[in-house]
Write a structure and sequence with these properties.
Elements lengths: L1 H6 L1 H9 L14 E4 L8 E4 L4 E2 L1 H14 L3 E6 L6 E5 H17 L7 E5 L5 H11 L3 E4 L6 H11 L3 E5 L2 E3 L2 E3 L1 H14 L6 E5 L17 E3 H4 L12 E2 L3 E7 L7 E6 L1 H14 L7 E4 L6 H13 L3 E5 L10 H9 L3 E4 L1 H8 L4 H4 L8 E4 L6 H11 L6 E3 L34 E4 L5 E2 L3 E7 L9 E2 L3 H8 L7 E9 L5 E6 L3 E4 L2 E4 H9 L4 E11 L3 E10 L7 H14 L3 H5 L9 E8 L2
Parallel strand pairs: 4-17, 6-7, 6-8, 8-11, 11-12, 16-17, 16-18, 18-19, 19-20, 30-31
Antiparallel strand pairs: 1-2, 3-13, 4-5, 9-10, 14-15, 15-24, 21-22, 21-23, 23-25, 25-26, 27-28, 29-30
Helix pairs in contact: 3-4, 3-10, 4-5, 6-7, 9-10, 12-14, 16-17
The structure holds adenosine-5'-monophosphate-propyl ester.
């Protein structure tokens, strides 16, 4: 299959695309048109040009219409082990249609942006699907970002509506999400962006609605309006190249990048990668621990699995609450067969020993997956031997927000594994390892990881910033997409990712630009200059290390250190003051030295 995908990409991807419903078929001679070479003109990537489809229809209606309406689409496990819920594909369709009808009723239409700032409730994928159904462009912002970071994204994409909830409890911490949204909307208004609608879901498990601040006219309770709308909503057929979503990610400058994905190619790619890299079978119960605020939650909580008619588990809580056995408790409770997580979670659970794992049977597990950062061989072994009882293959999937889906990944059982290697490229992907002059290296080598040809799931631009798109990804090595990662290839052709080679730090699989942290630090009145680098961290992969120069006359103290850290938290990420029970987003600051310039 790989050879065919390289020799005849148009034929290979067309056959797969035909498994989906297209209101209008793409032009057969325009399956893919591309230019990845800046020296030959503007960068262009287009797939299935001329085709008209809808990803929500394919992910939901198509499953109902093919007789799987009663199959579970989503299981939901709340923060407390006693809280759970589920939705069949038919029920999911009804809920998506009601929300889509509500959004239409308040004037949201094709091409309009909608910001979603929700925790892992079923309403989060429902909101994504409702936007897709009516051709609106969703931009999910991870509900761990600060009000400033949220405002920055709102100002950039100017949404017609924001969808949020009152609050969420993760572990023992209560996070008042609506208050954070309120602050960000005030901030956005100061920057000229007024959002007319703030649809707020009442998360029963978290807070009572009387405690929530309210701005009548703008704020609307989801439960007061959405259930009143009809459960039928016509699909908006969109062009294959119409935008599906915007997702902001950190780059090497302070401003986050709005990665834009379009509809047709992303649909085909997220579904196909899911199916093969996890060896998906219709009876599987699939759990990806990522939040929908990241690309992993877009492609492998929402779209990829639902496009395959899978049963997906959504977990609201924290992996160490009420104790570090929670993940395995959930695996047994739902009979999870495919478990996809991040190395940082594995390393943090490793510290608690095997006792919490051994308490649970985990018999149902069949395939394991890892994503977000290089998995060190020790963590890989523990995942394989302890969690998977040495019988479940591990798919170590290398990919990025920009790639939309897996790029280098094992296919379970298809070839021997090597702990810590993401192995070989997925169908249609042609990786190239180049030296600093952009010369492609052959055989056993080490260098910069690039991709030679486009693939259907590739992002199409950075929203509103085509120059930055070309400069960041296509100018470093003409003719190639540059990933920003280092990689080596061994004598057997296996790929070993070595981490970022640009100014991006990967803390627990979360991308943080050094410039974002630096600009937050220098906004502190006592900080003159700041330089931020990564340090190795046992659990988080990398930690953040800041060198700060204080303004003249200010001396360093522990209180000042705390105040600097708080400044960063409030501008970039809510980090551990809010998420202390969630090891995944814990961040780590150390100050190596301070120096007062005379
Ligand atoms: O450095 C690579 C690392 O995560 C970066 C992409 O981050 P983001 O866009 O936030 O997407 C994360 C989820 C896909 C990459 O440039 N990365 C991701 N997966 C792996 C990885 N590094 C090594 N091995 C992986 N499996």
């Amino acid at each position: 299959m790989y050879q065919r995908s390289i020799d005849d990409p148009a034929g290979f991807w067309s056959e797969i695309a035909e498994e989906f419903y297209w209101e209008q078929r793409w032009n057969p001679d325009e399956v893919c048109s591309e230019n990845l070479d800046v020296t030959k003109g503007p960068i262009k990537i287009e797939w299935f040009k001329g085709g008209r489809t809808n990803i929500c229809y394919n992910a939901v209606d198509r499953n109902v219409e093919s007789g799987n309406g009663d199959k579970i689409a989503m299981y939901w496990e709340g923060n407390e082990p006693s809280q759970d819920g589920k939705l069949t594909y038919s029920e999911l369709l009804d809920k998506v249609c009601q929300l889509a009808n509500y959004l239409k009723s308040v004037g949201v239409g094709k091409g309009d942006a909608v910001v979603i700032y929700l925790p892992m409730l079923m309403e989060l994928p429902i909101a994504m699907l409702a936007c897709a159904r009516i051709g609106a462009v969703h931009s999910v912002v991870f509900a761990g970002f600060s009000a400033d970071a949220l405002a920055q994204r709102i100002v950039d994409c100017k949404p017609k509506a924001v969808i949020t909830c009152n609050a969420v409890k993760r572990g023992l911490k209560l996070i008042p999400l609506k208050d954070i949204v309120d602050t960000s909307l005030v901030e956005s208004a100061k920057n000229g962006v007024n959002v007319g609608i703030c649809l707020t879901y009442e998360n029963q498990s978290a807070l009572n609605k009387v405690d929530t601040q309210w701005k009548p006219g703008r704020d609307v309770w989801w439960q007061d309006v959405v259930p009143n709308f009809p459960t039928k909503c016509d699909v908006e057929w969109v062009d294959a190249e119409d935008p599906l979503f915007l997702l902001y990610t950190s780059g090497s400058t302070g401003k986050p990048k709005g990665v834009l994905h379009t509809t047709g190619g992303y649909m085909v790619y997220s579904a196909t990668t899911f199916k093969h890299a996890f060896d998906y079978k219709p009876g599987d119960v699939y759990w990806c621990t990522a939040d929908c605020g990241w690309i992993t939650g877009h492609s492998y909580v929402t779209y990829g699995p639902l496009l395959n008619g899978a049963s997906v588990l959504i977990f609201e809580g924290a992996p160490n609450y009420p104790d570090p056995g929670r993940s395995w408790d959930i695996v047994d409770k739902y009979g999870v067969t495919i478990f996809y997580t991040a190395p940082t979670l594995i390393r943090s659970l490793m510290r608690d020993g095997t006792e919490y794992v051994d308490r649970y049977s985990r018999k149902s597990l069949r395939v394991l997956g890892s994503v977000g950062e290089p998995i060190n061989p020790t963590a890989w072994r523990w995942f394989y031997d302890v969690v998977g009882d040495s019988r479940c293959p591990i798919s170590d999937t290398w990919w990025q927000t920009e790639t939309g889906g897996f790029m280098i990944t094992p296919l379970p059982g298809a070839w021997p594994q090597k702990p810590g290697s993401a192995t070989f490229p997925f169908f249609g992907v042609q990786p190239a390892i180049v030296d600093e002059k952009g010369r492609e290296l052959e055989g056993e080598c080490s260098g910069y990881l690039c991709i030679k040809k486009s693939w259907p799931g590739a992002f199409r631009t950075l929203y509103g910033d085509k120059d930055r798109y070309e400069t960041t990804y296509f100018k470093p090595f003409a003719g190639y997409y540059f990933s920003g990662d280092g990689c080596s290839r061994d004598k057997d052709g296996y790929h070993w990712l070595t981490g970022r080679v640009d100014d991006v730090i990967n803390v627990s699989g979360h991308r943080i630009g050094t410039a974002e942290v630096e600009s937050a630090l220098v906004s502190h009145p006592k900080c003159a200059e700041a330089a931020v680098v990564a340090i190795d961290h046992e659990v988080k992969g990398q930690g953040i290390y800041a060198f700060v120069t204080l303004v003249d006359g200010v001396s360093y103290s522990d209180d000042l250190r705390k105040s600097l850290i708080m400044t960063v938290r409030s501008q970039v990420h809510l980090l551990d003051d809010v998420w202390s029970n969630n090891l995944i987003t814990n961040c780590h600051f150390l100050f190596l030295t301070t120096y007062n310039f005379p």
